[in-house]
Write a structure and sequence with these properties.
single chain, alpha/beta, TIM Barrel, 2 domains, eight-stranded parallel barrel, six-stranded antiparallel beta sheet, 20% helix, 25% strand
């Protein structure tokens, strides 16, 4: 197989990437919730229940003060929550709560995409129980969920009056038409969003009927507020502002634009006024905000290297409630600790924790209203997409580390005086894309497999674990064989798994080769042992380090950006270390995603070796349809793999194990469990509220 040095750099071992044994209390807690909810699990679930791992010390009963709603009425409008200066007040029987620990919930499960709702009533009920046990008090959704969400939320809250889950209802723009039309004021864009606002107002009150069903459950007794809109594209709204520079100021009954408002802020003020009108007609008032993010925050960041990240300023201060809307407004930010680059470059943020300093600056800017971070967190993925200060990177965290960091960030948000922190997100979602892997994949089938290198798919507190898709297959079984006596394999929606029984006097290093496309060399997949594989895991079995390499023709980096040879990691001729681009700004930054830490993608115990290989490290653009991505002239093309040939090499001895095959799948299998270390986030959530 050529000269492949195993990676010998000293690397601290990380906790195992994956599941741990579930605690007894945790497992049966969600089993019981599922049974009480009625119905059956989704047919794609492999196990009969949703398992909680690593939660051995979940309290058996709620503790602390009750969170039972005790709404106020002002000028005939009932308020579950309202704002007072920089405070967001949730009105409860135990007094006003002024910090909200929450979680963001999408509307998909593995195998599905947004707009194709697939969450069952039983899942909702089990999830709500788990959220409550974790100290989460608010669930934020981005758009209207199916009726089961509202039915189960109300049912859960009625059964748990002291520990209800409050709702932060989102209303997203139904399409991205404003981007290609470069016009928020486009009639179709505006009318479509107004329709969404009207439907959402009906849905939360149980008054909506469409061809998709009937929303017949009133959840307004637990409705804490609204967050409307989406993260806006700076180029599109800048163009929209130029086109609509003469847009009239908004002087609505409930919301108005201020003298300094730009056209986008005026458009948002009009939409917030319309939503407030729907609620006021029902005798209700809730705080309303719009989505913002650092890319369009109202601050200036001259050290930001990417133009689009400091191109446009959107300011919640320019949209004000009138005296007719007693619940008020707040500033809502999706703010993560690793992006944009100004977090690492802006001198004023470097005097302490840059993320904390940034949040403090936002809080000071919004001196007359509360500020909430409504998306934050780090993913438990192998792949990363950006380096952040203080090790809070966009990936390359174990589950334990990610949940610990999430808890630390929640405490930080509270300590800096903000009004709430909503963790992104509740459950891992397979359909999500990342900027540094999207060009390597078949976008039409991304929801059918779970890529460990696509960080956006791994933010959840709830893991959605793959398969397995098939029973284990024996590839090699020969007494006295060397370097391996036995090799068996199985596949799931994330990995190719190998179990290897090494031969007598196991080698100190081992190279495991993988053939995915015989056409690259013109030799049979399971032919002679001297065939050069398409990917290699070079393992130092003694030093417990390793490195993944990919054939030069399959290297994905050129699909993203031309990177000078001098900046690539060391590799033999014709090969590339498996890397991911993590920053396009100069100097270019790469993650050595193929650094094989012991206990993450491989493990050895005496003569028993286990290896799991992410499909993306084998150049699969979609393993569910056997598609391998082959870069050609800067574009991704697809070739069909007949299977993965496995070979081993050590000390000059090459060994062909055999070929791993599997059936195409169009419906993935998965199980659910709380991630290892979720108790760290629970402790943080309980600490910021006092229980």
């Amino acid at each position: 197989m050529g000269d492949f040095p195993s990676h010998v750099v000293s690397v601290p071992a990380r906790p195992r990437f994956g599941r741990t044994r579930a605690g007894t209390v945790g497992v049966f807690a969600l089993v019981l919730c599922l049974m009480l909810a009625g119905g059956s699990a989704s047919p794609v679930l492999r196990s009969p229940a949703f398992l909680i791992a690593g939660m051995r010390d979940i309290p058996s009963a709620p503790t602390g003060q009750p969170w039972t709603p005790a709404p106020l009425t002002v000028d005939g409008l009932r308020m579950v929550a309202s704002t007072q200066g920089q405070r967001f007040l949730l009105h409860t029987a135990a007094g006003d709560k002024d910090f909200l620990p929450g979680v963001d919930l999408g509307d998909t499960t593995p195998g599905h995409v947004p707009g194709d709702p697939s969450i069952s009533a039983a899942q909702y009920r089990a999830w709500f129980a788990a959220m409550s046990l974790l100290g989460i008090r608010v669930v934020r959704i981005y758009t209207i969920h199916r009726p089961a969400f509202y039915q189960q939320l109300a049912g859960y809250n009625r059964e748990n009056p002291d520990r209800p889950l409050y709702l932060m209802q989102g209303v997203a723009l139904p399409t991205d038409a404003y981007i290609y039309r470069k016009n928020l004021y486009d009639k179709q864009v505006t009318q479509a969003f107004k329709g969404e606002l009207k439907d959402a107002a009906k849905a939360v009150s149980g008054e909506l009927t469409t061809t998709d069903g009937a929303w017949d459950t009133d959840v307004t007794p637990w409705l804490a507020g609204w967050i409307i809109g989406t993260e806006l594209d700076p180029y599109a709204i800048m163009a929209s502002d130029r086109r609509n520079r003469n847009a009239k100021p908004v002087s609505g009954r409930f919301f108005r634009s201020t003298a300094g408002a730009n056209p986008t802020e005026r458009w948002l003020a009009a939409r917030m006024n319309e939503l407030a009108g729907y609620q006021a007609a029902k005798g209700l008032s809730e705080p309303i905000a719009f989505v913002n993010w650092p890319t369009t925050d109202p601050l200036r960041h001259p050290q930001e290297p990417l133009k689009q990240e400091d191109l446009y300023q959107l300011d919640a201060n320019h949209v004000a409630p009138t005296s007719n809307w007693p619940a008020g407004t707040f500033a809502s930010y999706h703010a993560f600790p690793y992006y944009p680059d100004f977090l690492r470059r802006e001198p004023g943020l470097q005097k302490g924790d840059p993320y904390a300093e940034y949040l403090t600056t936002l809080h000071k800017h919004h001196a007359t209203m509360p500020t909430m971070v409504t998306e934050f967190g780090v993913p438990s993925s192998i792949g990363s997409a950006h380096y952040g200060p203080l090790g809070r990177d966009q990936g390359e965290h174990s589950e334990t580390d990610a949940t610990r960091i999430d808890g630390e960030l929640l405490r930080l948000i509270k300590d800096r005086g903000l009004a709430g922190g909503f963790l992104f997100e509740w459950a891992d979602e397979w359909y999500r894309l990342a900027w540094n892997t999207i060009t390597h994949q078949d976008a039409s089938r991304r929801q059918l497999w779970h890529d460990p290198l696509t960080n956006e798919q791994w933010f959840g507190l709830l893991a959605t674990d793959p398969g397995p898709l098939a029973t284990e297959t024996t590839l090699l079984d020969g007494s006295g064989g060397w370097p391996a006596q036995r090799v068996s394999a199985r596949v799931d929606e994330s990995f190719l798994h190998l179990d290897v029984k090494l031969g007598d006097s196991p080698p100190g290093s081992l190279r495991v080769g993988f053939d995915v496309l015989p056409s690259l060399s013109g030799t049979p997949m399971t032919g002679s042992a001297d065939r050069r594989p398409d990917a290699i895991f070079a393992l130092n079995l003694v030093g417990k380090t390793g490195q993944a390499y990919v054939r030069e023709q399959l290297d994905p980096i050129p699909l993203d950006q031309a990177v000078p040879e001098s900046q690539r990691g060391p590799a033999p001729d014709g090969w590339r270390a498996f890397e991911l681009l993590v920053d396009r700004a100069k100097p270019i930054e790469l993650q050595n995603a193929g650094l094989l830490r012991h206990g993450v993608l491989w493990e050895i115990d005496k003569d028993e070796l286990t290896v799991r290989v992410p499909w993306s490290m084998l150049a699969f653009a979609d393993p569910s349809s056997h598609e391998v991505g082959v870069p050609r002239s800067g574009k991704l093309t697809f070739s069909t793999s007949p299977g993965v040939g496995v070979s081993l090499s050590a000390s000059g001895t090459d060994q062909v194990a055999g070929q791993v095959t599997w059936s195409t799948w169009n419906v993935p299998l998965y199980t659910e469990r709380l991630k290892s270390g979720a108790s760290a986030f629970r402790d943080a959530a309980l600490s910021v509220t006092g229980g």
